Structure formats: C-alpha cells, structure tokens
Hints:
Elements: H1 10-33, H2 36-42, H3 51-71, H4 78-100, H5 109-127, H6 130-138
Helix pairs in contact: 1-3, 1-5, 4-5, 4-6
Amino acid sequence: MAYSFTDIYRPLRTVLRINGAGIGCAVGGVLLLAPSTTLLRWGMLTTEPMWTTRLAGALLIVLGVYFLMAAGQAAIDRTTLVTSLLGHGLIALVLLMAYLQRDLAGLNWLGRISLVVIFILCLAGALLPLRYLRLANQTF
C-alpha cells in the first residue's frame, strides 16, 4: 500500500522523504563533514567548538534515515507520527528562536533563503502528522 494511489498517507510519505533526504542527510552531512573554514565563510559557525556542530549533523543524519525508512512502511504508526511531529517541530522552534535572537544575522542571502526553506519544510513535517493522529488512535 505504500505506493498505491489510494494510500491515505501519501502526503506524509512525500514530506518524510523530502525532509529525510534534504534536511536529514544533506544538511546533516554538511554539518558533519564540512570543514570549519567553510562553515565560518557561510556564516553558520561563529565559535570554535566544532563538536556541537558535528553532533547536530550526526543526529540530523540519524533522523533523516529514520524518516526515509518510516516513509517506506506499509502502515505508518503512532510512533512515527509523534517522532515526525516532535523532530520537525523542535527544529522549526530552534530556527525561529535563532531568528528572533538575531543569531542568523551573519548569514548571506543564500543561507537565509535555505533556512526559510528548511523552516517551511519543518513546519509541514510537524503539522501534517496531526491529521493522522486520530486515525492512528482508531487502529489500536
């Protein structure tokens, strides 16, 4: 049922795949593997302790792989819905708080556009599972 036209979870699967590959694996990979000079040049890093940035990248990769694997399941359960809601919601909250505290002032225009796109994708990933929570409760 994961690939049929009658799949009720199709919009959620699409968001999970896009966010898993884009935010999880791509952004996480950049944070994990990019040299500190590149991150400084992009304005993403202002302090020297790199282990926090590397840890965030590693955790984004893990979350992205989880979302990619969850999108391929035949039935999406409550655990996946809550993980998607919390994972995406907390990333969106961190980006919002960083914007309000003016932590993103050092970014160039490409970085700002990228973070707006990531914020919108995280909002979609946080709000879309709300639609399916009632359905997940009825199946148990």
